[in-house]
Protein: Myosin Ic, paralog b
Organism: Gouania willdenowi
Amino acid sequence: MESALTARDRVGVQDFVLLENFTSEAAFIENLRKRFKENLIYTYIGSVLVSVNPYKDLEIYTKNHMERYRGVNFYEVSPHIYAVADNSYRSMRTERKDQCILISGESGAGKTEASKKILQYYAVTCPASEQVQTVKDRLLQSNPVLEAFGNAKTLRNDNSSRFGKYMDIQFDFKGAPVGGHIINYLLEKSRVVHQNHGERNFHIFYQMMEGGEEDLLRRLGLERNPQQYQYLVKGNCPKVSSINDRSDWKVVRKALTVIGFNEDEELLNIIASVLHLGNVQYGGEDGIACITSDTQIKYLARLLAVNGSVLTEALTHKKIIAKGEELVSPLNLEQASSARDALSKAVYGRTFTWLVNKINASLAYTDDSYKNYSVIGLLDIYGFEVFQNNSFEQFCINYCNEKLQQLFIELTLKSEQDEYEAEGITWEPVQYFNNKIICDLVEEKFKGIISILDEECLRPGDASDLTFLEKLEDIVGGHPHFITHKLADGKTRKVMGREEFRLLHYAGEVNYNINGFLDKNNDLLFRNLKEVMCMSENKILRQCFDREELSDKKRPETAATQFKASLAKLMEILMSKEPSYVRCIKPNDSKQAARFDEVLIRHQVKYLGLMENLRVRRAGFAYRRRYEVFLQRYKSLCPDTWPNWQGKLSDGVSTLVKHLGYKPEEYKLGRSKIFIRFPKTLFATEDALETRKHSLGETDYLTFIFPQNWAFLLSFSITMQACWRGVLARRRAQRRRQAVDTVRRFIKGFIYRHKERCPENEYFLDYVRYSFLMNLHRNLPKNVLDKSWPTPPAALAEASEHLRTLCMQNMVWSYCKKISPEWKHQLEQKMVASEMFKDKKDNYPQSVPKLFVSTRLSKINPIKALKGYKARPRQLLLTGSSAIVTEEGKLKQRIDYAALKGVSVSSLSDGLFVLHVPSDDNKQKGDVVLQSDHVIETLTKLAICGDKVNVININQGSITFTAAQGKEGIIDFTPGSELLVAKAKNGHLSVVSLNNLLFTLASV
Ligand SMILES: Nc1ncnc2c1ncn2[C@@H]1O[C@H](COP(=O)(O)OP(=O)(O)O)[C@@H](O)[C@H]1O
Ligand SMILES: [Mg+2]
């Protein structure tokens, strides 16, 4: 759209929101006209696409066009049905939200064509595999089949859909169409038995007649002449120049094969039987009907696979069950004809529904492994209808349009409100006509027109169309949207029949003729006709007429109630999806190209609610764009933003619009978008851009080098940019696809993780191993004391153990390598201490963290001798050959290591130790009892120096020693709460050793 803003005078605006006078219907229509003249049939109202039927083939639906719209931003290209299709598709893929495209408009406006274009767009542009191709073919081929059976030539459209259609296209996670589902609404069955002048029955009858092979027609008992069949001559126009029934027949037959249809014979039998039914003639005396010729019955019996005489009886009698008894009464001529017609309608109508189910079965997405799919729904449903004579069908159709209009207004308003809220801009309430009041008038329980109609249909007694009208007058007579001849003022009375009621729809007034309302709503088939059909051997009819129906005492729901329920369901479906709208307009009633009938168009603009739509969209701001788009386009207009703005985008836009002189009331800045209130502001900016373009350096430069071609180069560079964006988008899409693939493989692997290695789980198992090793790599133990180790998966348990050992060895090796000689010496001593005392002496653990030193000689003497059980400070010197006890430098005792018999300590946490010397050594003064603050250290050094590791005795209880002169002494050790060394009454030295492990030298 941006590129075409400048072309606005010649071809109008591409978006009606840019109309300066947006409330003027004339301006709206003038814009449509300008564009239509230039074959620009598409225009937006915001995101709603308005499409005018060109009634000629335009070269705008080629593969190249599809490519142009694929993956491109909605507003960057001119309006097109493909832009809507692509936008929905991308929203579905990126936001994972189901979408629906609502196509509306009156008969002949181009709805069905639009829905076909969308389907073709997806068929060509979506990713495909062989399996997907089959689905695509079936989706496309479902159209000719449904059109043959559900479309007909009417005065308005040579290929008018006589049923409503909602089609879901299902897409898998790769965005490929993988299935579909169709819901059909209210087929106009009355067309089977009657057509207005200039109209035809459903296409399939004429196609069969024209295209059917001789053999086939013979078998079906048909002549190749539509004039011969009562059901085909009512409209008196079996041939239509724009329709080629013969080639259409071939298309339909081929489509049936693609869909995987194998009940052709039964289906054609049913079609033929309807034609034969139409030719069943009645005669009879005394008003009692009988069938005058039995040729038809013969064919019917064969084609419907029923008993001929039972059928004859059923076509001429009526069976009622009253109070459990069967009452059979003959029919008069009129009743018999309508019974026959009711049978034709029922057979055709049910076969049509069966056909839709059949197509659905062929489109069903059957891959259970991945049930999660996204959906784009296409709604192609009858538009608002106003004829000279409007009946029950128009009543239903227009009610349907009221409902859709309500949904449309609600959702459009809601999406506007949502956008304002998301952008943080205050919502300004919009006045609009809420047509809920009309919907209620039709559908409200007990008080609505449908309820009143049902009541008249169901009540016993002499209910008729006229009593229905009276009831309406009684109950809804005062409603502002309801009038009848009786209730109307004089002026209106002149244009209303006595058998009519008028509804003031949102789109205009419609008079409905009440004749036939009750019958059409009842849609009843006499019981005996139902019984015959239930006995049919025809495969299709057996499914259409279920025997259970006969035993079901409940009255079937009326046509209007069924329709109301199906519409309610449709609204639910549509509400659950994100909608896009295509509003189709028919330019003239004569199906002519290039004729723009203003009156007709104004009428449609009105009843499609387009002005209302525009008002809602324009209520606040005409134009809104993301900051980056706006800045990119207009940055050259401000020196601060040209050539590039480095700061925040919103600041850039703010700087730019201030430089352009926007007044505060003309715009607002949202969170990510700029909102411009009036189109004129935007156009002024556009004009400034045009002027600026010519003075831009880039242009000058290009002009200088390529005098004629700078414009081409500019457009070339834009194309290149678009291509590059396309490349980037495709790369992103590929990355996303890969991610999804990985996740799927992972989930599958997880499910199969306990199985033997197989293709399903190998990815997962490898990943688990890889992730364990990477985790290990990040969390290896920091040192030899760190015992942490990640838990390995079962398959790696053994390897993990090996790695753990290796890791430990490695840590030890590198630790050893870094060790200094002093530290080594320290550790060697600690090792000896450990060997001697670990788990043997209580105060060993306290010694572990304390470093051993080479001397502890200082003022605070840690060694004491217990001579005569009294503590006296001493020093213990350890030389290479002996241990020497001194008192402040005075030698007290020397013990050669060679003479050292043993060393005794207790197992408790005291510091006492006894050096045993031989008792016969006169040089010695007996065993030495010493006490040390560092007993472990002292004894370790002693053991190392004297190589006496093995002579250390650790005693429990007591130590016996030999004192001077061969006297024997005993030291008793007992655990206690406090260190106490004292002479006991028994003459022993008693040592109460601390229980706790804090060893200090208590005073002796
Ligand atoms: N985009 C289009 N281009 C060309 N012709 C079109 C286009 N849309 C509709 N027509 C013509 O108008 C006819 C009626 O369109 P159709 O889609 O059947 O109307 P609707 O479904 O609204 O009743 C089509 O048969 C076709 O000839
Ligand atoms: Mg149609």
